[in-house]
Amino acid sequence: MTWNIHKSWKTQLEEEFSAPYFKTLTTFVTKEYNEQKVYPKQEDIFAAFNHCTFQDTRVVIIGQDPYHGPNQANGLCFSVQDGVAHPPSLVNIFKELGTDLQKPYPKSGNLESWAKQGILLLNATLTVRAHEAGSHQKKGWEVFTDAVIKKISEEKADVIFLLWGGFAKKKAKLIDKSKHHILTSGHPSPLSANRGYWFGNKCFSTTNDILMQLRKDPINW
Question: Which residues form the active site (predicted)?
């Protein structure tokens, strides 16, 4: 399998791609794509990195797994392809966005426009077997994506990390809090949102407030 990832990330993550664990991961993922139905499409595995270069990254949103239903996953966390029904977590993301920034509910659940503005939409695990949530966890992807977070933390400054839910919040230990911004809330999944842990967190307006304080362009969410 040939990995299609933007050269800005390839340079930063060179050590990871040559590490033994990554070679084992490559073997596993190649076998899965050859023998099973796996999401996203092979060419979209690194879509988050290809739509948002290392240099452009100014916001990071961390998800867990790609969607495992047909035609949903497009390589960006929480995002779905154009024309696909919005999964419950994405519905709640858009509801909070609407309340926070008085924006109309969008037709498309494709978040490429966010990525192109410098938002790295990073799933901790980049592939999944169809209809089997978590099936590619603990195969090496988390080691790789933790290294991505650490690299951003070490090499950049004033990046805003949005950590939604318990899983994402655990990634805070990888981030240098003295030079980055961490915004936490409950997860947008119905279970968490309906308990009052998601709605009203105002993470979108807060992100833009921080960017403007840094004299950077706000995100057009």
Answer: 65 (proton acceptor)
Express each pLDDT in 64-86 by its tens digit: 999 999 999 999 999 999 999 99
Provide the CA 221 distance to its chain's centre, in angstroms.
15
39-42 contacts, C-beta under 8 A, 24 or more apart: 39/66, 39/67, 39/68, 39/72, 39/73, 39/127, 39/128, 39/130, 40/66, 40/73, 40/74, 40/75, 40/127, 42/1
Strands 59-63 and 119-123: parallel
**62/72 Cα distance (integer angstroms):** 18
Here the tokens at position 172 are 């805070």
| Residues tagged active-site | 65
H or E stretch covering 119: strand 119-123
The structural domains of the chain, ordered by start, are 7-214 (3.40.470.10)
Q: In whole angstroms, what is the distance from residue 217 CA to residue 17 CA?
A: 33
Average pLDDT, integer, range 123-149: 97
Q: How many CB atoms are closer than 10 A to CB 125?
A: 20
Mean pLDDT of 143-162: 98
pTM of the model: 0.96
Name the DSSP class of 123: E
DSSP string covering 67-94, please? --STTTB-SSTT-B-TTSPPPHHHHHHH
Contact call for residues 173 and 149 (beta carbons, < 8 A) = no
Average pLDDT, the chain: 96
Q: Which amino acid is at 201?
A: N
